[in-house]
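Molecular record:
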Amino acid sequence: MLTLLMFLGGLVLLIAGAEALVRGAGKLAISFGVSPLVVGLTVVAFGTSSPEMAVSVQSAMNGKVDIAIGNVVGSNIFNVWFILGACALVAPLVISRQIIRQEVPIMIAATLLLIAMMWNGNVGRAEALVMFGLLVAYTVFLVVQSRKETKAAAAAGGSDQAAELDMSSTWDRHWSVQVALIIVGLLLLVQGSNWLVDAAIQFAKSMGVSELVIGLTIVAAGTSMPEVATSIMATIRGQRDIAVGNVIGSNTFNILGVLGLTGIVAPTSLVVAPSILTFDMWVMLAVAVACLPVFFTGREIALWEGAVFVGYYAAYTAYLILMSQQHDALPYFSTAMLWFVVPITVVTLIASFMRRAPSPQS
């Protein structure tokens, strides 16, 4: 009963925290001349990834490296498949050109960099410093780029960012109130996710699931609850640049920031589990690369594509559980996914792309 109450209390805090964070961050973008997309990629993404940071650093300090690495890999898979999928089920997500041309390639590059660093079976402190330094450079680049584009758009008489946000309220127009909303929202999100993770781990342990699987699924999903709440709330409020930017930015931050800082403060190198090297990191790369063709089909994630994303995450989770239990159904499940579900999805995406592509006469 106590575990259930902790789970429900965490959910309430997540909803309240997401509302405060989205409202404060969205309006702060206007105050400082930064686009909502960049706010989603930086302030919101980094803030909602703070639970991943706390869990991975604490786990590495306590010698639970499987949870530390599994949390990051699992969160990145969860963010794209489940969060973007769930948001698309709420409303079709129109994808910014900057997301397609710049942010997704950067996310893919960060994923490839992590794979290269994990290839020898561990991530050392020097490699972690490189990742964290790249995160700082990426953040500075985004802010400078956004401010230049905002000034250029204003000089050219472009669209006002205020039109993208609900400016009817007056109580939160001052930047100090917006910063306070962001801080309160982050605090509620962190506490809510902590309660959810603690409750989920208790459920998982009672089922006899390994630490790595707990990190890849329960902890990864639990620490990503702020992203879930924030992105869905942003979608409902019509701030879809924040919704998508939050997910893509969180994935880049998880790799460069969370694992970077974890590797810096950990007493020893981060040893990578063999199953991560042979399976999960390739799923993470495939999920990142899959964003490009999906986003290109009309520059949006349609409702049916959102359903496919959520379905694939459910299948991935089921596979991990079956594998951890060495269940007799595992070979049949793997065969069905490899020879039936995946090919049908690929064919459907190709057909969708061809249907939406402009004709030669147009």
Summary: Strands lie at 93-94, 122-123, 270-271, 300-301. The two ends are 62 Å apart (CA to CA).
